[in-house]
Amino acid sequence: MKLYKRLSRQAGVVLSSIIFCVNCSCDTDPTTNPTTAADFDMTPQKVAITPGIIDEASGIVPSYSMPGNFWINQDSGQPSSLYLLSADGKNIKEMKVPGAANRDWEDVEIGPGPNAGVNYLYIGDIGNNNEPKSQVGVIYRVPEVSDANANFDETKLEKITFSYPDGTRDAEALMLDPTTKDLFVISKEGQNTGIYKLAFPQSTTQTIVAEKMGTVPDVGLATAGNISKDGSEILIRTYLAVYYWKIKAGESVGQTLTQSATKQLLVALEPQGEAVCMDADGKGFYTISEKSNAASVTLNFYKRK
Hints:
Layout: H1 3-23, E1 45-49, E2 57-62, E3 69-74, E4 81-86, E5 92-96, E6 105-111, E7 120-125, E8 136-143, E9 158-163, E10 171-176, E11 183-187, E12 193-198, E13 208-209, E14 211-216, E15 224-227, E16 233-237, E17 241-246, H2 253-257, E18 263-266, E19 272-278, E20 284-290, E21 297-303
């Protein structure tokens, strides 16, 4: 990664995140949001990650077909590969995604898709590293492999291309609603963080114009997002915090995100935190960071109380 990108994120970007954290309460007013907030142990359980393989980790999701493992993507300048990481951090396997190109992969999601009973991985090539802000993004969809010795099938790789309805955008957060199979891209803004929806079924032959659903209150510089496997909880992270929403009965993901977060969680400081996901069994959530100028990083687990 280019040095100036690291410096900009570690200095001005983190300073902006601090301003947002200072200005926002760690808990929303229960009188305005009666949904009971989930509680997590904010001292994470840490697993050391051997440096040199996934130093540019930008997205993480649990494997549904191989429990006890995670899928990691790296951003621009890295191979067009996903990495299978064991929960104990001892095993990392690179798995190339043939037919895909890593312009600036920023997030990865997992869940249902066009064929019933199939777990799909969604790779968000939605960043703007070393380029002006992009008006077009790409999301690769490919069935998850169920064997660590298998390979991704290029013949089953699909490319979802989309544009924004309101000009160029940088984005690092991709989410999949497992209930509707809609995709959501959250733009990376200092303020007025946009919510962009790609409704299912997403075309793989034409460029889709995303639908803007509104903005996320009080969240700036979003670096990752995730919706729980059961579709009831949402996480969006920044460099310093994780924002949590519990979806109320009858509400959509878009409607929920236009409301203030149920809870703001100040997570442990990481070198350049860009990835978050819920545990597949709902027992907590995980974060991982780019290594940046640190010697190494850890896989952090925040257990649900």
